Hints:
- The protein is mainly α.
- It has helices spanning 4-35, 64-67, 82-101, 105-127, 132-148, 154-163, 165-174, 181-221, 230-256.
- Helix content is 72%, strand content 0%.
- The longest helix is centred in the last third of the chain and has 41 residues, at 181-221.
Amino acid sequence: MMSQLQVVNVILISVSAMLGASFGSFVNAASMRYAAGRGFVTGRSSCPFCGRVLPWYDLIPLVGWLLLAGRCRGCKAGISVRYWLAEVCAAGAFALCYITFGFATLTLAAMAAFSVLMAISLIDLETMEIPDGLNIAMAVIAVVWIWLEPEMSLVSRVIGFFAVSGFMLAVALAIPGAFGGGDIKLMAACGVMLGWQGVLLAFFVAVFLGGSYALWMMIAFKRRGQMVFGPALCLGVFASLLYGDAVLEWYFELLRL
């Protein structure tokens, strides 16, 4: 038998997941519209093939795509599984935010951070650029985070601003095209939010993920050339946001052995 507190937590985790699925659906649709050069907050959702306006019951997060078996109700054209995966990922991320931070304002800030990071990832994959507006949004969240997490010193945050972004800028100046300006601005903002240790951990995770993916693409598909790094950075930042303190604590304990 679960206690009353456990029941409440399960309910709040489920609510967080449903909220995440809804935000994931919106962020995915908005990102696709932005990449296509369309207004991302105007107009109703419609089938990209026949133009049929989608009724509300086809847009229910997590369920709508499954009920339609991934096909338009009108023309029966296949609808990308990206829509459903975006909702699943956002649902899981929002649930993890609540599990990590609990019933607190910090949870809402973490959810907002994930939403921006998700938008950055999806747009970067489509256009190979990160809009300045999203980096500004990330910077605003970072400033709010200073107020919500006053335990971290301002010195750590200032060093974090330069720790990764400064390195990336130096590499980009030495090797043109190595890193995009959007990536550098993103890590500057995230450095303020995470502090220097957290942003270094985020960058390490990003390099590992991005390097592994690039190696797999070269071996499996013989693909070479420029690849987007934004999604890997966003995954690293979100992982550090949720688990950075625990990982760093484990690492420093390991060094003492």
